[in-house]
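SUBJECT: protein chain
CONTENTS: sequence, structure tokens:
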Amino acid sequence: METKTIIKSLLWVFILSAPLFGQARNGPAGAVSAAATLEASAGYAYISLAAPNSQSVALNGLTANVVSQFTPHWGGTLDFTFARAGDALGTGQSDKIYTAMVGPVLYPLGRKRTEIFAHALVGAAWIHGAVPITATTYYAGWEDRPSFALGAGVERTITGPFAMRATVDYLHTTFVNSTGATEGQNDLRLTATFVYRF
């Protein structure tokens, strides 16, 4: 599937599923204050990318997302990340990962200026890397496959429309192993972002 087709599909899923999270609730809204209609954030991303032979590669990069909070406790998000490492397992090739995912966000707890949230995201990951086969040879190239992330975090209002957010995610991606076959990867993603609420 081409990259443009994947991105278009993700945007349509986000747009069409948005009304499902905005259904009215009976009774009081709860402890969390009135929901922001839209917020955008950008910041730092760290990914510990799983590699063959129980190794991992540390990638650093950028992340950005848009959240639409439909009720005080539910919202939806569109999430993008790019991260890179200069040398993949001593091969001289760089590791790069791009992810684009969408999904629901749950806000179970909120007190004063702090909110706890959890999300479940699905989408695609594009990975460039290299896998050693022997001491002198390696596979190198791109792999684009479906991916998903499950995580939670905390968001703290600084002042007015500005906030900070920290998130921890289990990120599942796919790349080739030393036999040339595709293999699932269990990765860790940490992000710290600056938030603006519209």
